[in-house]
Amino acid sequence: MGKITMTPEPPYYAVIFSSERTEGDKGYEKMSEKMVELAAQQKGFLGLESARDPDLGITVSYWESLEAIKNWKEHTIHKLAQERGKSEWYQSYSLRVCKVERQSFFEI
């Protein structure tokens, strides 16, 4: 399956980050790539899916546990990115943490 993350059998957790960007890059793209690389190195990380159009970006990251999510939220470099997001990169955003209890996949 191409860009869809193959996750283990539930339960596990999904963090849904939806955002509206400010104008201009201001280092966003580079930091975004770094965050994906860094998240993938974290204990409990299961995968990530992301899509963006000119108006809205949605990133869903998958985690083994709430503790893994908490550790990622508190990671020093991630905290720096969060602060820059609030001050430079985002007009608005939402963050939702969900427990995945059921899943199914389809592929031709």
Automatic annotation (TrEMBL):
The keyword Translocase does not apply. Signal peptide: none annotated. Keywords: Monooxygenase, Oxidoreductase. InterPro entries: ABM_dom (IPR007138), Dimeric_a/b-barrel (IPR011008), Jasmonate_Hydroxylase-like (IPR052936). Residues 12-84 form the ABM domain. GO terms for molecular function: monooxygenase activity. Gene3D superfamilies: 3.30.70.100. SUPFAM superfamilies: Dimeric alpha+beta barrel (SSF54909). Pfam families: ABM. This is Heme-degrading monooxygenase HmoA. It comes from Bacillus oleivorans.
